[in-house]
Design brief:
single chain, alpha+beta, Pnp Oxidase, Chain A, 7-stranded antiparallel β-sheet, 4 helices
């Protein structure tokens, strides 16, 4: 396999694409699109978000100390793109995109009702890196639309029709899994083995 070597660059693809909402002390709300976000810790549940200091949301989040991560679906891809290329300093993106805003439980930033999954986050630290600053935040509450939860309480994210971002393009997440965590080392079911033997003999 032949490969071409490039200089170090941000080529981690695909990445989740989310809409982050924040609210300043004056009550002004903003939303912007983020692709550089990821899980950092399980206990307590924490995530990292990379934000440019010149973004309006940077000021809002730094001032309030919290934000909400909203997971959009493929039907919202136009809104996602718009909120990533337009600045809240010039226009009200929430109004332009006709988003319905709901109150959060424990943070000041609101939730986008149209998103089936939303994470309330409280900032724990901000690290200066270069072009971006890294926000480390704890997830204090997660809002899941009931349409994604079955009668046994299992959450079916595959039904959320989530989207990803890869090298300048948006893609929907395939609802059919390629495998399940741990399947590569899972022992085969003895019942299935016996059933296969009897089937072969027949």
């Amino acid at each position: 396999m032949t490969k071409t070597i490039f200089k170090g660059s941000t080529m981690l693809n695909p990445v989740p694409v989310v809409l982050i909402t924040s609210k300043n002390k004056e009550g002004k709300i903003n939303v912007f699109t983020v692709g550089w976000i990821g899980t950092a810790c399980t206990k307590p549940p924490m995530i990292t978000v990379a934000i440019k200091p010149e973004r309006l949301s940077y000021d809002y989040i730094k001032e309030s100390g919290d934000f909400v991560v909203n997971l959009p679906n493929s039907k919202m891809v136009r809104e996602v793109d718009y909120c990533g290329v337009r600045s809240g300093k010039q226009i009200d993106k929430i109004c332009e995109m006709n988003f319905t805003m709901d109150e959060s439980k424990d943070v000041t930033a609101p939730i986008i009702s149209e998103c089936l999954v939303s994470l309330e986050c409280k900032v724990k630290s901000i690290t200066t890196l270069g072009s971006h600053d890294l926000f480390l935040a704890e997830i204090v509450n997660t809002h899941i639309d009931n349409t994604l939860i079955d009668i046994k309480g299992k959450i079916h994210f595959e039904k959320a029709d989530l989207i990803t971002y890869s090298h300048g393009e948006y893609f929907s997440v395939n609802s059919k899994p390629l495998g399940k965590f741990g399947y590569s080392v899972q022992k085969k079911n003895k019942t299935n083995k016996n059933h296969s033997k009897h089937k072969n003999k027949a």
